[in-house]
Amino acid sequence: MPHTSEDHQVPGTKGEGGDRFDGGDRSDVGLRERLVRVGVELVNAEGAQALSLREIARRAGVSHGAPRRYFPTHLELLSAIARQGFTELAGRVAAQDRETAAPRARIELLARVYLDYADTRRGMYELMFRHDLLESGGLGLRETSLPLFARLTELVARVRPDAAEPAVLAGALWANLHGIAQLWHWGSLRLATGGDDPAPLLAAALDAHLGPAGDAS
Q: Computed over its alpha carbons, how large is the radius of gyration of the chain?
């Protein structure tokens, strides 16, 4: 009997990964989720550069053509993986945020969570902010990423009610945080400042964009 690859399975048979392929939606959803899960594990372990379709398929135990049945383009699969990153980051923020806290304290917490995520999920962090993924708008990536920025903008507006455009101010603060995350990872800020902790840089960024902490409402 000739060998059949997973993307051309005989109905009712098992694929290379052990899942049953009977033409139903359950097997399709299961394989799609497995491809994304494997991609998340791979990017966290080896970085965004490791996310080839062939490697993801190999680790998922399917033929190299199988991912294209669910993700017609490489960009769509990467977007689905990046969406998991935004979901995880949002979950970390939600787990620590306290609506009863002062707005500035909540911004500082969000910023700390953001910098920690950039440090502990380096590969995923780099994937999440790839401009080609965000510009494509594929698989609801914008809908997953924009609520975090909306939360930051709302808090900035409360700390700085005098700001004519809170979204612009929030964007400038975010850009500052992103720069700290990148330059700290590269070692540039350690070299330039002689420090071994990004906390003073975060405090300076918050003061620069929001005003000194003692002046916050």
A: 21
